[in-house]
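In the design runs reported in the main text, the only information available to the sequence generator was the tokenized backbone. The following block is the verbatim input for one such run; it is reproduced so that readers can re-run the procedure and compare outputs position by position.
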């Protein structure tokens, strides 16, 4: 128990510190790397809780796909950090006001938080044996029964975000040669091939 407690505090401290550095880092590439570190430590916390399926999904999906995609996009965009910092002082009062409002809302939310009447009894209740219900089955029951509608709505939101990203980045640039498959299929032989007779000892 002591080793698990120490491991929990270690992974939790690294997760909080890396999450803070995601926001505080000045280089966007460093922010994405700190985000990957936060995902790895969150997966370790899930392993300590016995939720190995969620931990592996977190590593495979978020670290292996989402965070790496963020890193590639940030590196390809070549963001000018100095240009982004020019308007920092200009928008500092507005940002500080919004931050104070959000901080006040968090204080009010935590101040009004109370424990549910049956929460302590549920915490003291015996958990089912690991052999009866595994993590994958328990997660599937929750997602596809109680939160099925919200799960589908989340997928729809991601689909709309993908379509919006494609629409925003798809531009018709003049001078860029694009492939036209119907024109290639309808092209005749005399349009694609030209026979040139080269004299002996000469060149084109």
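Verbatim output:
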């Amino acid at each position: 128990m002591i080793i698990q407690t120490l491991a929990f505090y270690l992974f939790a401290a690294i997760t909080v510190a890396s999450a803070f550095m995601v926001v505080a880092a000045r280089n966007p590439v460093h922010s994405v790397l700190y985000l990957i570190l936060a995902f790895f430590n969150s997966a370790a916390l899930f392993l300590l809780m016995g939720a190995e399926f969620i931990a592996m999904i977190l590593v495979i999906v978020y670290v292996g796909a989402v965070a790496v995609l963020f890193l590639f996009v940030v590196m390809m965009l070549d963001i000018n950090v100095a240009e982004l910092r020019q308007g920092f002082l200009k928008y500092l009062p507005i940002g500080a006001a919004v931050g104070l409002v959000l901080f006040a809302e968090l204080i009010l939310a935590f101040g009004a938080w109370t424990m549910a009447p049956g929460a302590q009894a549920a915490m003291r209740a015996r958990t089912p044996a690991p052999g009866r219900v595994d993590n994958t089955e328990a997660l599937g029951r929750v997602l596809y029964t109680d939160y099925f509608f919200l799960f589908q709505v989340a997928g729809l939101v991601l689909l709309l975000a993908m379509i919006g990203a494609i629409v925003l980045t798809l531009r018709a640039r003049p001078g860029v040669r694009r492939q036209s498959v119907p024109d290639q299929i309808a092209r005749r032989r005399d349009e694609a091939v030209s026979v040139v007779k080269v004299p002996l000892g000469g060149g084109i």
